[in-house]
Design a protein that fits this description.
heterodimer, A: alpha/beta, Rossmann fold, 2 domains, 7-stranded mixed β-sheet, 5-stranded parallel β-sheet, 13 helices, B: mainly alpha, two-stranded antiparallel sheet, 16 helices, globular
């Protein structure tokens, strides 16, 4: 055979297909495992929160398997990178159900991704638990098979409002929101409701869009305000928060900046730097070596596995979600999707490291305590633990 | 081949594809059916994008703007009354009471885009070259901002959800075939020749009596119809979407499919979609790590995007005008290939 361009191309294609068919036709592992679908946005805009959640989940799976597994079988995470792309998410959802035949799934830290996957799991009757998609509307939008392992945005916004009114003594607030995502718009809406209910006053509301690199227009309007607001509440996505904080501080604004769990990313300190001082945010747990004993144990296990401390509370949420699912499987005594769903819905007082998880009545959103983290001297510290008294309706 | 024979082959081919699309769910699992469905939708979008970008030489970056408008218009129209009441409580009464079927909302979405394309195109199609790209990019940005701020109609930045999941494989295949047949009839007619004449040399085209503005505008408007209809299919495939989904990332993904396949050929557009879709699915599965017995590769998430980028670069180096260039898969060519095969 002459080595022409065509034969080279041809053999390359054949070789590619041969390699590619490998994983598709991969035979089931020798010993039987319990598969748990784990789609996460490991790359793309959400990777700084999704990747830690996945790593946390892996830590818990290893821990459970080392202790003998569940129902005498080992757990196996069937992981896919969904690339922060709704079409990839929809295809992956179908792949998990029809090809990998997982009885239960977990994943994602944002509502948009969960909404793209949800209907496909719901139609197939396969339960799905999200570690970090905090929209309290999610279970109602998708159906009976969707569960949250974290508190809803209404709870964390209410906790933020009470913290601003109480500890920070802020009577007036400037509210800035990223109006291009579900998470930030809802968070700002709930904060406003709770803050007004608590007797605060909002002096100005303004918007920006995810990916904006300059906030000059917003900052100019903010600086022109008289009298100055006591506190700035900024509902931002992980990617933007460092930049927002930095530009506000550069413009000479020294008020406390408060926000939600979108701040809980290494980007706050790495991009914001010194500017991040006097920033507070509500999140799921305080990840540090001086936190609760359960968190400290997890902190060490995570550091041992990945050579880096847990990046944020989503790592702990990923860990808890696997625990929650494993607990439901063992109480169901079976890997039947419907039985796992019923066991999940009946969860009462599951002791997670981010707090205790119970689903009250028909609700599939747990009531949990909110941690408020502050930044002082370029370091995070636990500023308060809040269980809000008044919570806006989802 | 006589005209009659040709017609029979085309009809038989369409019937075969139709039959395949209906029987596919029984033959393969839902995952593959979904991939094929998305491929059909993307093929329709890329082929319609090729009208202006490839055949007429108006390199528009605004195509995805029409896709977004199509998705939202059809989504609002086909939401059930109860879903409208809970998701979009502030809709004006006349829309809130309106509930259209999937097919009619898709057609309405296409027509809305036609009107929009006419309004936008009339001033913009006077521009040429890079200027028209930048101007249409402006259109894309405007659509995005309007979608985000028209809260009452679109839920703003929040996910638009609750759209019935009605885009099945037969629907997507049906629309693709319709788009291909209709567009092929236009592209290879005097109208299509006028498009290409305008692309190759505006002054020469004017000299032989072709009016440049209406010619470009027609390509832009027809492309917009299928973009709107494709947007509706996309929306009814996902069921929930947000303005961020109809922005730069999707624009560049469609453009890369068009450029890789070959901008000046409808076959190229389809081939580009097939190549990019299959490659990205294969690579996405490969990057999870695999075991060849001899070597085991650990998971490398994100590697698929890198490899895909390198493949694109290689294709552009070795075939700068895309895989197909300006070649079409035609009956004459197939016959010639068969003949050549027999001789060897």
């Amino acid at each position: 055979m002459k080595l022409t361009r065509r034969t080279v191309l041809g053999s390359a294609v054949v070789a590619g297909l041969a390699i590619a068919s490998g994983p598709l036709a991969r035979p089931a592992a020798a010993q039987e495992t319990i598969k748990i679908g784990a789609p996460f946005n490991v790359t793309g805009a959400l990777s700084s929160v999704d990747a830690p959640a996945l790593n946390g989940a892996k830590v818990k799976v290893k821990e459970i398997n080392d202790a003998g597994g569940v129902l005498g079988k080992k757990l196996e995470l069937v992981i896919y990178d969904t690339k922060t792309d709704p079409t990839v998410i929809a295809a992956t959802a179908s792949q998990l159900i029809n090809q990998d035949k997982v009885p239960v799934g977990l994943g994602f830290t944002d509502s948009d991704s969960a909404l793209a996957l949800g209907p496909i799991f719901q139609t197939a009757g396969v339960p799905f638990v999200t570690p970090g998609a905090t929209s309290p509307k999610l279970p109602d939008q998708i159906g009976t098979d969707m569960f949250l392992a974290c508190f809803g945005d209404n709870v964390q916004a209410a906790a933020g409002a009470e913290f601003v009114l109480g500890k920070l003594g802020g009577k007036t607030v400037y509210l800035l929101r990223d109006n291009s995502t579900e998470y930030t718009t809802l968070l700002a809406k709930y904060f406003k409701e709770a803050y007004l209910h608590g007797g605060g006053q909002i002096v100005l509301e303004d918007n920006y869009k995810a990916g904006d690199k300059s906030f000059t227009a917003q900052i100019t309007k903010l600086k022109a305000l008289s009298p100055k607001p006591d506190v700035l509440y900024v509902a931002a996505q992980p990617d933007d928060i460092g930049l927002v904080v930095k530009q506000m501080r550069q413009a000479g604004l020294t008020q406390p900046i408060v926000g939600g769990d979108g701040y809980d990313t290494p980007l706050l300190l790495s991009v914001g730097g010194k500017a991040a001082n006097n920033v507070y945010f509500s999140t799921h747990a305080y990840m540090a070596e001086d936190s609760t004993p359960a968190i400290v144990t997890f902190y060490k296990a995570y550091k041992a596995a990945y050579n880096t401390p847990p990046e944020n509370a989503f790592a702990a949420l990923g860990y808890d979600t696997v625990g929650l699912v494993a607990d439901a499987i063992s109480r169901a005594g079976s890997t039947d999707s419907a039985k796992i769903r019923d066991a999940l819905a009946a969860t009462q007082g599951y002791k997670g490291i981010t707090g205790s998880i119970s689903y009250a009545g028909d609700s599939r959103v747990p009531q949990k305590t909110v941690s408020i983290i502050g930044v002082k001297d370029d370091k995070l510290y636990l500023a308060a633990e809040v269980t809000p008294n008044w919570i806006p309706k989802p | 081949m006589s005209g009659m024979q040709r017609l029979i082959v085309v009809v038989a081919g369409i019937a075969l594809l139709g039959l395949f699309s209906f029987s596919a769910p029984a033959m393969m699992n839902d995952y593959f059916v979904r991939i094929l469905t998305v491929m059909c939708i993307n093929a329709m979008l890329v082929v319609s994008m090729g009208l202006a970008n490839g055949f007429t030489g108006v390199f528009s970056l605004g195509h995805v703007g029409f896709v977004g408008v199509g998705a939202y218009v059809s989504g609002v129209l086909s939401l059930s009354a109860s879903a409208k009441a809970s998701y979009l409580p502030d809709l004006p009464a006349w829309i809130a009471g309106l509930h259209l079927s999937f097919l009619s909302s898709t057609i309405v979405a296409g027509l809305v885009c036609v009107v929009l394309a006419f309004l936008v195109g009339a001033p913009l199609m006077r521009l040429s070259g890079h200027f028209v790209s930048v101007a249409t990019l402006g259109f894309l940005i405007i659509v995005n901002v309007v979608l985000i701020n028209a809260d009452d109609y679109t839920r703003g930045a929040r996910t638009f959800t609750g759209v019935p999941l009605q885009t099945t494989f037969p629907w997507a295949m049906g629309w693709l075939l319709l788009a291909l047949v209709v567009l092929a009839r236009i592209v290879y007619s005097p109208k299509g020749r006028a498009w290409r004449a305008v692309r190759e040399d505006t002054i020469a085209a004017q000299a032989i009596g072709i009016d440049v503005l209406p010619t470009r505008l027609s390509a832009f408007v027809i492309g917009a119809f299928f973009a709107g209809a494709g947007g509706s299919l996309y929306g009814h495939y996902l069921g929930s979407f947000s303005p961020a989904g109809f922005y730069f990332a999707y624009t560049f993904s469609l453009i890369s499919m068009l450029v890789i396949g070959g901008m000046q050929s409808m076959t190229g557009a389809v081939v580009g979609v097939i190549i990019v879709s299959i490659l990205s699915e294969l690579l996405r599965n490969l990057e999870r790590g695999f075991d060849l017995g001899v070597v085991a590769v650990p998971p490398l998430y994100g590697a698929s995007q890198i490899v895909l980028g390198i493949i694109f670069i290689l294709i552009m180096i070795f075939r700068p005008s895309g895989v197909m260039g300006d070649l079409e898969l035609s009956f004459g060519r197939i016959a010639a290939l068969l003949h050549k095969g027999r001789k060897e």
